[in-house]
Design a protein that fits this description.
Elements: E1 2-8, H1 12-23, E2 28-32, H2 38-42, H3 45-64, H4 82-106, E3 110-113, E4 117-120, E5 123-126, E6 129-138, E7 142-144, E8 154-156, E9 169-173, H5 177-188, E10 192-196, H6 208-220, E11 224-226, H7 231-236, E12 242-245, E13 248-251, E14 254-257, E15 261-263, E16 267-268, E17 274-275, E18 278-279, E19 292-294, H8 305-319, E20 333-335, E21 340-345, H9 348-353, E22 358-364, H10 369-374, E23 380-386, E24 392-399, H11 402-414, H12 419-424, H13 434-444
Parallel strand pairs: 1-2, 1-6, 2-3, 4-16, 6-19, 8-14, 9-10, 9-14, 10-11
Antiparallel strand pairs: 4-5, 5-6, 7-15, 12-13, 17-18, 20-21, 21-24, 22-23, 23-24
Helix pairs in contact: 1-8, 3-4, 3-5
Length: 450
């Protein structure tokens, strides 16, 4: 059977590309050996965010209910039912994955369950079927490497959000947004948490200003951080539910493997060029093999689902002859920490390295009326702008809904807006989004409420 496009993998990069391909009239097949929706919908983004929301609600009730005038809550009787929170997450996951499958079928995409093998730049086999396509898109994602002969204490992220008991002492191995989110999740639930990072930093793509804020929060939340320690280091130091690292004995009843991920490569008779273990791809996501593209985690450019989706859309547009630039600097990076953090554009070290003449304007949530009423006034909006023209070059946000607020910054950057545009954008009052206007005025002259 011949298709215009065959997509291997049905995570956010793959299924978005498939839906769009169907919408623009391309005969499309999507091959999935596991569950529709991939890691993000089934075991990652969605269930983890659902658990985080449950934890944040628990935290707000136990910590702030009395401040909001709510009485009669016996804190001694208050507890968190992890199993019920997981069931709520499962309901959401089922609804979303069913919705994705419906949309694929609605747009004429043939769903093929099984393991694909690329046999040439235009052919794929699956379940003893030979398929031909004008273009192949690899969207098989990535995964943390599972240690060999690991003790039972080690749990993969895929297996974490199930009906299970979470013990008192949790160690998370990793340094990206997933590791940070898991560390804070279990800390909010009253667990003693240690985060071991394989480097001397956390969330390496984040501006150091955000990193410093995160470390400060970890100290407040009593989350221990151990730097320059890999998962293998931790396993070598493990004995009898304890890690002996740098002379420090760390209790460990559960060790979560959120360590740096590697590409999940499909079976192939074709040799692809690799880069640091990921499929090498150019600015249009095309691999070293003609007509074969790599989108999402598998190309190593980003681990964020929305960026994978954007890459998938970009490839379909290219196939249809629509030329555009895929500028990853104009796509936001979200971290569902507590409070949330987000950034877009250039970081301060990048601007310094490029010798850009820039300025920083910042406005705190502590001076925002809506944030005060919600009791969520921790955080800020920070804008990096060009001194010559005032163009917005980068934005960093710490706020309870930073991952939603960053969309406004994304719009500014897509339109190459200046700080004058930001200052002149009228925001309704009272809203937390007013901090953008204030940061804009701070860059132009002086913030109104500062």
């Amino acid at each position: 059977m011949k298709f215009d496009v065959i997509i291997i993998g049905s995570g956010p990069a793959g299924y978005v590309a498939a839906i769009r391909a169907g919408q623009v009239g391309l005969k499309t097949a999507i091959i999935e050996k596991g569950k529709i929706g991939g890691m993000c919908l089934n075991w990652g983004c969605i269930p983890s965010k659902a658990l985080i929301e449950s934890a944040k609600l628990f935290r707000k009730i136990s910590k702030d209910a009395a401040k909001f005038g709510i009485e009669g809550i016996d804190k001694k009787s208050l507890s968190f039912n992890y199993a019920k929170a997981v069931k709520r997450a499962d309901v959401i996951v089922t609804r979303l994955t069913s919705g994705v499958e419906f949309l694929l079928k609605k747009n004429g995409v043939e769903i093929i369950k099984g393991e694909a093998k690329i046999t040439s730049e235009n052919t794929v086999t699956v379940n003893n079927r030979n398929l031909e396509a004008g273009n192949i898109i690899i969207a098989t994602g990535s995964k943390s490497v599972k240690p060999k002969n690991a003790p039972d204490v080690v749990v993969e992220v895929n297996d974490l959000f199930t009906d299970r008991e979470i013990p008192a002492h949790v160690v998370v191995a990793g340094y990206d947004a997933v590791a940070v989110e898991l560390a804070q999740l279990f800390s909010v639930l009253g667990k003693k948490v240690t985060l071991i990072s394989p480097a001397d930093t956390l969330i390496p793509l984040a501006d150091p200003y955000l990193f410093d804020h995160l470390v400060s929060n970890f100290k407040k939340q009593k989350i221990n951080i151990v730097y320059n320690t890999t998962l293998d280091d931790a396993l070598q130091a493990y004995a009898s539910n304890s890690l002996d690292i740098n002379g420090e004995s760390i209790k460990c009843d559960l060790l979560i493997n959120a360590s740096p991920r590697q590409a999940t490569l499909p079976a192939s008779d074709v040799q692809f060029e690799l880069e640091n273990g990921f499929l090498h791809s150019d600015k249009d996501c095309q691999t070293s093999v003609s007509n074969v593209y790599a989108v999402g985690d598998v190309n190593g450019k980003s681990r964020f689902a929305h960026i994978g989706s954007a890459q998938g859309l970009h490839v379909i547009n290219k196939i249809k002859g629509v030329r555009q630039k895929l500028d990853l600097k104009k796509y936001p990076i979200n971290m569902y920490s507590i409070p949330e953090m987000a950034q877009i554009g250039y970081t301060e070290p990048e601007l310094k390295a490029d010798d850009v003449d820039y300025k920083i304007s910042e406005f705190p949530l502590s001076a925002n009326g809506k944030a005060m009423t919600e009791g969520t006034n921790e955080g800020f909006v920070r804008i990096l702008s060009d001194n010559k023209y005032g163009e917005v070059l980068g934005v960093q946000i710490v706020a309870p809904h930073a991952t939603d607020m960053i969309a406004e910054a994304s719009a500014y950057m897509q339109l190459e807006s200046t700080i004058y545009d930001v200052a002149n954008t009228v925001h309704a009052h009272p809203t937390i989004s007013e901090v953008f206007m204030e940061a804009g005025f701070e860059a132009v002259d002086k913030a109104i409420h500062k």
